[in-house]
Amino acid sequence: EFNLVKSHAPEVIEQLYQDLCQLVSDTLNQHTQQASHFFTFLVGTTEFDKIIITSNCVEILHFYQIAAPTKMQASRQGHSYILLTFDNQFTFRMRIHTASSRFTYGNTVSLKFDTQLAGQAPIHTTRLP
Prior knowledge:
The longest helix is centred in the N-terminal third of the chain and has 20 residues, at 10-29. α1 (2-8) packs across α2 (10-29). This protein has three helices and seven strands. The chain is elongated. A hairpin with a 4-residue loop joins β1 (49-53) and β2 (58-62). The chain is of the alpha+beta class.
């Protein structure tokens, strides 16, 4: 079980995560010309407006005006994180972890990244009274 390995030899898990994060970071940096495609993969379509109606006003957020990135830079942070920065002022933090705490010797271990928005360019907004 994962937790047993981690409690007896945490350096094994840390080294695995660090090596995989470095590999993913290096791979992303070798394909910076694909920044717009990877941004779309992470964010999805931005071809819409979001309307927020409150008792005081109406706000229209123009997501369609988000600029497509042309470059990206990935860097490993610590043992299990990657910071991914796009040239359109959006930044994501990716954390690697096991998909399940159960695994058996001789079988593959399923790992995945959780990706969170860490910073963004201001979204152009129209406010109506």
